[in-house]
Amino acid sequence: MIELQEIVVVDRPRAAVFDLVSRIDRLPLWLPGIRQASLLSPPPISTGSAIRLAVDGPTGPVDAEGEVTELSAPGRLAFRTTKAPVELAAAVDLLERSASSTELRLSARLVLPGMLRFAEGMVRKRIEQERATLATDLRRTIEDAIPPA
Question: Angle at the Cα of 73 (from 69 to 77), degrees rounded to 5?
């Protein structure tokens, strides 16, 4: 099992950040490892909404279906895979630091089942390499996507 936790502070209001992160089609913009995402259920997004993801895998993109497990505006979005060769659960909690500043607490758990376990070391190494710039890149990406208040 691979677990990731990261805290990023962005200079944007919590409601605006939540509007961005709760759009499933925008997950690839701000969540590393997600190449493509779409909402399969009719809008609006809610707890239980079905989603489709293309996730970076050890040998290339892996297609997955999942569901939104928690949606609490403007504070939390969580989802998990339901039909996928890997088990992924991810969440982002948004805490208001000030009227114009938001703390994002990202957490993810990735389980590679069966024969895919052989690739866990390679996946873990890649995540650790990308983690060095994750906070800076994520902050810049979100601030660029949301105009200043």
Answer: 30
